[in-house]
Write a structure and sequence with these properties.
- It is a single chain.
- The chain is of the alpha/beta class.
- The chain is 35% helix and 26% strand.
- It has ten helices and 15 strands.
- The protein has helices at 11-22, 37-47, 56-60, 77-86, 101-114, 128-138, 163-166, 174-190, 283-295, 305-324, and strands at 2-7, 27-33, 51-53, 67-70, 90-93, 118-120, 145-153, 194-202, 214-221, 226-232, 241-246, 249-254, 264-269, 272-276, 328-329.
- Helix 2 links the parallel strand 2 and strand 3.
- Bound molecules: NADPH dihydro-nicotinamide-adenine-dinucleotide phosphate.
- NADPH dihydro-nicotinamide-adenine-dinucleotide phosphate binds next to helix 1.
Length: 331
């Protein structure tokens, strides 16, 4: 049996990741660490987890833990990844990897030096819809890609309206929460790197303490594509999607910027519009499966540690563009 430890008694672990780990044959969640002993115990009992720790150090000292899934608030990821690497544990870390690029790079380097696998939990790469869109774009179905539009404006559910809307120090705000996913998705689908960002943000109703709850950005990619992003915590009925428009056709994903295996993909060109077939599967189960394969030496994770650094670079550039009102280069 391959043992996992959860660093963070979080909602995402409870709602998606514990199940995704348990869906892998021979894998089990054996421990959880929380900053509160009572919450660790309660969480372990609620989810059938054998051992509850009140510190990351105790969990990392557990020889039955061979990999960790880190889903604490964002400002904690760096030190927890560094500690996990030093303890020789493989690391699946939530996005955004960190709050600065230097921190994110330090995490990647530490895992590489320790010889452990590190991955970023960008789940959308595992969506059958996104993979179908990517394949169509890369097969030339729309000709030369020119523009992309990402619709990722949602309503932040009440049970998640904590640190995301009122704790800047924890890496709150819609840009580090959602734009970071858009950046990864566009890189994945286009096979290109963003090089410039312009953006404006909004604090309409939910966000406090100077955080933003809505953002619109435009990115330029190194293949010339311009991508427009609309991300929000405040719009219950906007619907999600992604579109890529080329000189020979357009591909449209509807209801695809989501955690659930749902949504449709359409191709429009001179022959008309038709729906492309997709075989939906659980995004998180697939992501963990790729991570497990990488730990066995078989391939790389769906979203690598380096992918996490690159998506963070774009999100930080969007934040800076909002702050300064200028065009920001993305290195
Ligand atoms: P939560 O707010 O649920 O959990 C974050 C931390 O908050 C936990 O580690 C826990 O601290 C503390 N906490 C949780 N519940 C309580 C409570 N009832 N009382 C007091 N403290 C509590 O965050 P999320 O699960 O929404 O997000 C965690 C991370 O996962 C973030 O980095 C986020 O960006 C990422 N995420 C990624 C998603 C994806 O699809 N890839 C989706 C959602 C989130 P402690 O561990 O000390 O108990």
């Amino acid at each position: 049996m391959f043992g996992w430890g959860l660093i963070g008694a979080s909602t995402i672990a409870a709602e998606h990741m514990i199940g995704a780990i348990r869906a892998q044959q021979g894998h089990e969640v054996v421990a959880v660490a929380s900053s509160s002993a009572a919450r660790a115990k309660e969480y372990a009992a609620a989810h059938g987890i054998a051992r509850a720790y009140d510190s990351v150090a105790s969990l990392l000292a557990d020889p039955g833990v061979r990999a960790v899934y880190i889903s604490t608030t964002n400002e904690l990821h760096r030190d927890q990844v560094l500690a996990a690497a030093a303890a020789g544990k493989h690391v699946l870390c939530e996005k955004p990897l960190a709050l600065t690029l230097d921190d994110a790079r330090q995490m990647v380097d530490a895992c590489a030096a320790a010889g452990v696998v590190m991955a970023t939990n960008h789940h959308l790469r595992n969506a059958a819809t996104h993979r179908r869109i990517r394949q169509a774009v890369q097969d030339g179905a729309i000709g030369k890609p020119l523009f992309a539009r990402v619709f990722h404006a949602v309503y932040l559910p009440p049970h998640l309206q904590g640190w995301r809307i009122d704790r800047p120090a924890a890496g709150g705000g819609v840009t580090l929460d959602i734009t970071v996913h858009d950046a990864d998705t566009l890189r994945f689908i286009l096979g290109a790197e963003p090089v410039e960002a312009v953006a404006l943000s909004q604090s309409a109703s939910l966000a406090q303490q100077g955080l933003e709850d809505g953002v619109m950005a435009v990115l330029r990619f190194d293949n010339g594509v311009l991508a427009q992003l609309h991300d929000a915590f405040t719009t219950p009925f906007a619907g999600t999607g992604i579109e890529v428009h080329g000189d020979k056709g357009s591909i449209v994903g509807r209801n695809v910027m989501t955690q659930r295996p749902v949504g449709e993909v359409y191709l429009r060109d001179a022959a008309g519009e038709r729906q492309l077939e997709v075989e939906h599967e659980n995004l998180y189960v697939r992501g963990v499966a790729r991570f497990c394969a990488a730990m066995r030496g078989d391939g790389v994770p769906a979203a690598t540690a380096d992918d996490g650094v690159r998506s963070l670079a774009t999100a930080l550039a969007v934040l800076e563009a909002c702050r300064t009102g200028s065009t920001v280069r993305i290195d």
